[in-house]
Amino acid sequence: MVGRCKPAWQKSNQGLSHVVMWHEVNEAVDVSFEDATKEHRRDAERSGEEIERLTVDENLGDIERACLFLASNAHPLQHSCAIGKLPSLFNEYGTKAHEAIFPTLTASLDEYSEHCQIQAAEALTTILLDASLSKEAPDWFFPIAFRMINGVRTPEVMKSWLGTMRALVPVVPQQMLTEDLLQLALARAQGEESKQAHVVASSIFGAIAPFLDGKLILQTYLHKAMGLCQDTDSEVRTCMCEQLNNISRSVGLNTFMIFVFPELNELLRDEELVVQSAAVESLVQLLGFLPPDIRQIQVLPFLRSLCDEGNAAMHVCLARLLGDIIIKMVPDLLEDEATLLLDAYKILSQQANEDVRQLCAYNFPAILKTIGARKYSTMLHATYLQYIQDTSPIVRCTAAACLHEVAKILGKERTASYLRESFYSLLKDPALLVQSKLFGILHVVLGHFSVSNTQSKATTYANMIPSLLQAEKSVSGTNQWRMQRSLLQAFPLLAEYLTSDQIYENFVPICFRYMADGVPPVKISAALALAVFLRNNCKIQQRYELAQKVVKEYGQGQSYWSRLLYIDFCESFLRVASSRMFKESFLELAINALQDPVPSIRMRACQIINPLRTVIRLPDDVALLERINHLATQRLNDTDREVVEAARIASDSQKRVFVLDRDPSHDHPSAQDEYEKMDKLREDEEWNMLSKEEQEEKRKMDDNLQRAKIESLRKSSADATGRSGSTTSASDSSSSNASKKGSTSKTNAPRQGTDSGKSSRSATLSRTKSQLGTSGFTPPASSGSAPTTNVPSSGSNSLSTKRGSLPLSQKSLSPNSPPSRKPPSVASSPNPFADGTLPSNSQVPRRNSAKR
């Protein structure tokens, strides 16, 4: 099963009981409902006494519970549970755990089941690999390991404890090696001892050799070890083959040539294939130790004969080791001799055995690195094409997995020349296994086709589009979401190699499709790819259309998941684009997410509060900063606990950054200064990637939109003043008629009428100013003044959702203007680009009128 662990009872063959801490048997194993049901049925069959015996006090500490479970009369499941927790207990309690647990473990280990004994050996080996362990640990573990290998055990148990002893050898004192282990090995190497005793002696001889003097080895056990090479049992001879590398390097070359090399030659021609394979592996390990003349005269002909005459099993062994063989031997060989070795590799690569071909494909990068990129076209290109076109998906998968290593060795020019068609072929491969491996390295492979010639580079990547689209089509119809995510993770690199039109027409729809229908990890990868595509687009109209589609379908989406994905998109866009571009299109709705009715969205929005603050530029954006701070404070008093916690984390993080930036002891630039510098570079890059025509159209668009805004503001103010003036005239007329009918005029009556009119007009002007302030529009501020805004009250709805508010394209793309209501004249204002292809004035995003 791929990606899943076997249930614990399949690993241990022991019956499980959820009464005894079921979740502690293996915390990494996911227990399904069916598994728990089976265990419940097993418990139903147990007697009350058995269930009572398996039940323990929940208040016991970790060490007390481990001691209880390690007792000899405990259940096998309890043994397994306690042994599995030994590494964590020693890591946490150290000496205290040893003093409490080891007496019980040592006394009961022989009575454990075979599985528990193997598990105990693996647990001690894991503890030994922990660098933070006490220096006394080897002294703790050596006696128990020594006792286990000194008895009669099953082959599996003995193999596990020999592995523990090999881990102990480098860290125990040398006195223990010579007085205990060496003496044990000499005693177990006697001819009358059993096969298992000889295996133990062979393992100890090889394990202690690197830590003993060569003369001591020669005097004490070298002859014994060479005698074991002639043992009648193939298992002993195989074990000795595995020890020859350590023994040979310890005794030196001269002693090796006299005593060890003759034995190795005999083992290489052993009648047992398993012994011969182990001897070949030992020979490959010793190639760097052998002198060059021995490698040329004796080793090379022997290996060549094995390739020609060996059986299928030996071919598998040679194919697995051939990469190491060629790397170690070719530098000292003549060209003709290297060609012979390379021919042997080609012969193996054409074997009918699938495993042999797969191993040859696995070793291809090592062989190419040894031969050199210059000889690839004449000596190895045909072999690699053979792997790409192999009938076995396993072989093609291996060839695809090493494609990036081959491309790195060849360089960009040769990669574009020789591997282009192979890459296209792998992208179209019908086997999902092959595509899965290729997608995993796609983000690395794409860059290796970027040649220096601009025209060739453009042609290469343009021809790559159909293959990429076909690969995406094949994987989109499956439920392989990891493959989909791997493919989308490579999409951002396409912005560097393809034109804006190619990306807009072919890959942007794919991103939107996965953002709508993919699983959450795929949605996030698609959002990141779309953010990169939008930022690197060189067409003003395409930028605008993409931004508006994201805003309409996700920022203003009806479903909560679409608005949640909008926050993920904003987070990705902040990482790749400048703050100016973000503010023009996405900031407004990102701030509105802090007061979304769905708690999950508010919580997610709290996580980007600090990134949103980084785009603020004072004093121009003081209103936006006040709004962000206001909503952040509201979230600290939110009704949802998770939202409050997210807001608190954001607040604490902001405080730490503030203290660090203001710390006078730091002489380096603050994080904000570095961010602003990087942001300025991004902004310049986004402007320079536009053509001169696009830049000019952008300037005109910004100027016309700014003028339209100011004109609509003036017209709205004039209409409000006119309506107030009409009301005042009617009131004055009524007062005049009333005075004519019956009142006696006084000498100061005209004066009072004038004063009354002035007072009425003053009130009208006040009402007009009030309407102008509440409309959200402000006249252009004088130089150095900051814009003002009305901060929404707690719990108020987003201004962008109220009737009569400005479209998002006009609000979010004008970062210097506060949220405002749209005057009626804006929607009917003439389109300054009616004769062009740009959108209408009410839909075109606005930009700061200040020209670059």
TrEMBL record:
HEAT repeat windows: 260-296, 380-418
Spans annotated as Disordered: 658-679, 712-852
Biased composition (Low complexity): 718-749
Biased composition regions of type Polar residues, renumbered to the chain: 750-811
Xref: InterPro entries: ARM-like, ARM-type_fold, HEAT_type_2, PPP4R4
Entry superkingdom: Eukaryota
Name of the protein in question: Serine/threonine-protein phosphatase 4 regulatory subunit 4
Originating organism: Physcomitrium patens (Spreading-leaved earth moss)
Gene: LOC112288269
